[in-house]
Every structure is written in structure tokens, then in C-alpha cells.
Automatic annotation (TrEMBL):
High-level lineage: Bacteria, Pseudomonadati, Bacteroidota, Bacteroidia, Bacteroidales
Source species, domain of life: Bacteria
Protein name in the entry: Uncharacterized protein
Amino acid sequence: MKKIVLSDNEVADFKAFCLSELEKSHARVRQIQAILGHLGTDVSDILTEEMPVTFTKQNRTEAINEADVNQKKKKNRRKKKKVKWSDFILTTIKNKETVMLANEIIQAAYDEFEVPDDEKQKVRMSLSSILTRMLNQEKVLRTYAVDGIRGRFYGVAEWFNDKQELAKEIKDKLVV
């Protein structure tokens, strides 16, 4: 049988969980004994003396507090900088002052936020879904297609006219 190694946080969490479950079980046994007593059943033959002594509220509270402190430390360690991707996308496109491919926007995010390799796929998926939402639902972005290039260029909606054509000054800046 394999041995499972648990961190101090996991041990404290598990200890608090077990203590609370034990307390619930003891409370349930006491409740059932009371019901049986009301029904006239002799409950003295039930071995309550051999049951382990219930933990005091202080012990249980200490274990729960210890688990909470460890959990807070764990959360703070894993806390990451939250990025509002839609704002990042808009500012990136506006700063470049021309339309951009999705891959260019994603690469800009990798460079700007120094995304580690193990999180690049997650960032790529987030940016793709947000680009789609900004295009279809919020309508703050529009796309521009160029023959011979796979994919579409994303640009700010105000750069397009009523016929969905890209403005001439933006089109002139486009390097293909």
C-alpha cells in the first residue's frame, strides 16, 4: 500500500474536517438516544461509555482556526494579478494604431505579462473567447480580411465605415 504525503495545510484541513464530522456523529447518537428514551426504550445497554469523549468546542475551534490560517496563507501565495483582457485588447490595438491578427494580440499579452509556458494555453483560450465576445456581443471590434492571409485582422469599430470597410488611413498602415 502506498503512503500518501500531505502538506501541513492539508493535514490541518483534514483534522478540522474529521473533528467536525465526529462532533456531528456524536450529536446524532445523542439525538437518537433521546428519541429512544422518549419512546420508553432502555438505552442504558448501549455502550456510551466506550464512545470516545467528544471534543470540546475550544479544540474544534482551534483546529478550524488553524485550518483557516493555513488556507489564507495558501490563497495569498497563489494570488495572481487579475487582468481585464478586454481593456488590454482595446489599448493594444489602439496603441498600435492599426488592425492586428489574433496571434499578434496573444503574443503581445505573453510579452506584456511575461506569461509562463504552463499558462500560455489558458491565456490563449481566454483571449480568443474575449475577442469573440467583443466582436459579436459588445460590437466594439470589427474584423478585416486580407486575401492570402489566414485569419482576420481585428480593429476598433470606430475605424470602420457604415459599409464595414476599413478606413483608408488605417488600411495604409497595414503591413502585410
